[in-house]
Amino acid sequence: MKSYLKLKELFKQLSQLHYTQRIMQWDEAVMMPEGAAETRAQAMATLSGLTQKMLVNKKNQTLIAAAKQEQGLSAWDSANLAWMEHKYTVAACIPVKLTEKLTTASMNCEQAWRKMRAQNNWKQFLPHFNKVFKLVKETTKRRADVLQLSPYDALLDQYAPGFNQKKIDAIFADLKQTMPALVQQAKNKQSKEQVALPAGPFAMELQKELGLTVMHALQFDFNQGRLDVSHHPFCSGGPTDVRMTTRYQKDDFHSALLGICHETGHALYEQGLPREWIDQPVGVVDSMAMHESQSLLIEMQLCRSPEFYHYLLPEVKNKFGEQEAFTADNLYQLAIRVKPNLIRVEADEVTYPLHIILRYELEKALFNDEITLKDLPTRWDELMRSYLGLSTKGNDKDGVMQDVHWPSGAFGYFPAYTLGRLMAAQFFATFLRQNPQFFAEAAKGNFSGLVNWLHKNIHSQASVLPTEDLLKKVTGESLNSKYFLDHIKQRYL
Amino acid sequence: MKSYLKLKELFKQLSQLHYTQRIMQWDEAVMMPEGAAETRAQAMATLSGLTQKMLVNKKNQTLIAAAKQEQGLSAWDSANLAWMEHKYTVAACIPVKLTEKLTTASMNCEQAWRKMRAQNNWKQFLPHFNKVFKLVKETTKRRADVLQLSPYDALLDQYAPGFNQKKIDAIFADLKQTMPALVQQAKNKQSKEQVALPAGPFAMELQKELGLTVMHALQFDFNQGRLDVSHHPFCSGGPTDVRMTTRYQKDDFHSALLGICHETGHALYEQGLPREWIDQPVGVVDSMAMHESQSLLIEMQLCRSPEFYHYLLPEVKNKFGEQEAFTADNLYQLAIRVKPNLIRVEADEVTYPLHIILRYELEKALFNDEITLKDLPTRWDELMRSYLGLSTKGNDKDGVMQDVHWPSGAFGYFPAYTLGRLMAAQFFATFLRQNPQFFAEAAKGNFSGLVNWLHKNIHSQASVLPTEDLLKKVTGESLNSKYFLDHIKQRYL
């Protein structure tokens, strides 16, 4: 196993550099003073160039070929070696200079986005965006060639390995057809119900305390992680150093709280990865779809349930006192309010898939050369009107400019949310079948049954199996939209 | 200039990696959850190994030799090239294995020190200390050989380039002779004066606001820097991303405030370095003596002056209300209290140089083989009695074991504090001669005259000149103790 062990040593170093990059990214979003942006962009480009260089060293190709002939590799070792080869292949096809260019352009574009979005200034943002998009297309073409995939499939493979346009078209077809009507039905039903809005302001410090209480209840390990504030919530760092963020709104404690629930789902996944493999490719979960399945399972299936609000109510009163709106049922009703909204991250779980499908349609059109970037505002508005009956005309900050993902060069990423959402429903249905008493425990604030089940069946498995194999092993079925649609109908109709 | 430009590119990358390391170190002290310590230590070791490898590449030696023959280099370029060569030389002379051994021994010795210091157990600490000392001697010998210096001069060169034992002996002679008597005179004078202690607690948030107010007044650029909390105050990051820290004590706002003044001196230096050179060796200030000259100038010469407290008083009252102790004169008197103390980091500016000279004498004796480690407790006690009239007999935890520096392998470091202090006095005397109206302005909170002068004469010059040349250019004299002694006499007698 000499060659394989040499590769393990290399990938351990790469993992340490990757951890460094993620802490630096966290720092940029949470801590860094604005005036350091340029220095930081350059340092990140250099770091990224160095890791790329270490990975694509020709010697590694030889080592991989030799390792594939070696005896005595366990199933985990073999999966690890396969990931090493995949990583080498997709990295080796991109010249270092191109990666450096893309990193710099993305970071500058992200900074421009922060500024221009606040000013609703699509026109001034477009040149920055164009630079990134051109470079993404260039790298994508190279990936597509070496993986023998279409460009858009090569992008999808980055975030949802094992999925492609054909599979996703099939899985999404049902949703695209069913969801607009479901949205209407849910809206109609809810229009007859009264909900009371909590009256703010809610002090940030108390909102944070409430969030920390929930994180504790969900078994987040604070000895190896922390919660901070950033413009866009995320979960970064590494398994022993999880950096979760959220953003607080003065008049709405609910939004930050559910954001925290979502990110805690990611965090539990990271903290539950097998410790003996965390510095190897097989011990990491690069699949965003899988990662979202865990964050959405916690947020949507658990934390938007009536039982969760039964547990939460005394904690809410403890922080914010008594209010008419503070009943378990009213808070639950608020958490499942269906309201077509321009902003994806504020969307409810019924309209959310339509936000994703909108982006999926636009990405397909962009990468299949049916439209260009400058068509986006118009096309966005058209789809938004058709799916959700809303317009973004003249309001690009809440349309095409609302997310950081495209400005930072992440295309092919959004579908992973909905793939993850469908998996979350499918995993959770299996869990509930095996643990029918769970919600009675959850109402008392005991979530350990779920967290332990996720740890045993999913988190501890890291990337040893392809997503669909793991899904099949745990749930007995391939990915489908049945469990999600059942869930929606049960909760909303 | 082809070779020189190649070197510039390499050192630019090294500078970016160095910036990354400094942000990661800041994160470790300020943000990192405890449970990430091991992952972080490994990542930092990998990062440090990579940069070392990039620097000592044999190709660089060839490039340096070629660059030295190239035409058209400006004065800054030539100084830059000299620094490159110096950095290469001192890095290349130490085998990786030896560095690793020293790192391990230092870490073990530091751990032993933490434990044995608490137990006042010099005897059990000694074998660990011996191991580190032997390895330091070994690395020092290599540095000394390649730099053609004596071993102790090679150590001094790390922290105060340009200074050596002969020069320092001459500069310190005066202090050694004069200071013990000055300490007594200052003590006697102060023993007749009454000072009122401020009564806490002082809310951390208000202490921080006061610190930020002072930083603003001192023209700290918050667009390229920030202030946080750590166990030991420091200033890290980089010129466009300065990370200052302090620690707050509930019952003593004065201590954190003066700590902030000190670190702001470092920060202004960093923020004032010439932007076109910040990613090159000539644009950085590695000389700890020079860096301390700037922090001590701000802290000791400006912020412990009566005029500063005249400015500060309304700010203090604004934050903490009225108190008997809150008069400008009383706060000033508190800031200049003289009290011989066993602990260096708690010493005032009058006794501080004697703490340094004590260590300097012992380091010289050690590296000139006049004493061995086991003589240290006795020798420490003798010098402490002679300089400050205090004994450490049987109290090694507050004697030879008080600082982490020696256990962690840092010898030759302490003299830089006092060299910096003397420079601070010498620079400031020149400034005052040229700007006799300054203190009248300072009393109104206008420090721009000083900050601009430091920027023009010192900060913007980075490392283009040897320390003593810069000192001579600015003050017209070589380093001497006259201005410091004048200052002490004027303030304390």
Architecture blueprint of SSEs:
The structure is a homodimer of 493-residue chains.
Chain A: H1 2-30, H2 37-56, H3 58-67, H4 75-92, H5 96-118, H6 122-147, H7 151-159, H8 165-191, H9 204-217, E1 225-229, E2 235-238, E3 241-246, H10 253-271, H11 288-302, H12 306-320, H13 328-335, H14 352-367, H15 376-388, H16 415-434, H17 438-442, H18 448-457, H19 467-475, H20 482-492
Parallel strand pairs in A: 1-3
Antiparallel strand pairs in A: 2-3
Helix pairs in contact in A: 1-2, 1-3, 2-5, 3-4, 5-6, 6-7, 8-14, 8-20, 9-10, 9-12, 10-11, 11-16, 12-13, 14-15, 16-20
Radius of gyration of chain A: 22 Å
CATH topology of the largest domain in chain A: Neurolysin, domain 3
Using DSSP, what is the number of strands of chain A?
3
Q: What oligomeric arrangement do these chains adopt?
A: homodimer
- What general outline of chain A do the C-alpha atoms trace? globular
**Rounded mean pLDDT score of chain A:** 96
Task: Please report the two chains with the greatest interface, counting residues with C-beta closer than 8 angstroms to the partner's C-beta.
Answer: A-B, 32 and 33 residues
Q: Architecture of the largest domain in chain A, according to CATH?
A: Orthogonal Bundle
What's the SSE pattern of chain A?
HHHHHHHHHEEEHHHHHHHHHHH
Helix content percent band of chain A: 55-70%
The CATH class of the largest domain in chain A is Mainly Alpha
Structural class of chain A: mainly alpha
Number of domains of chain A: 2
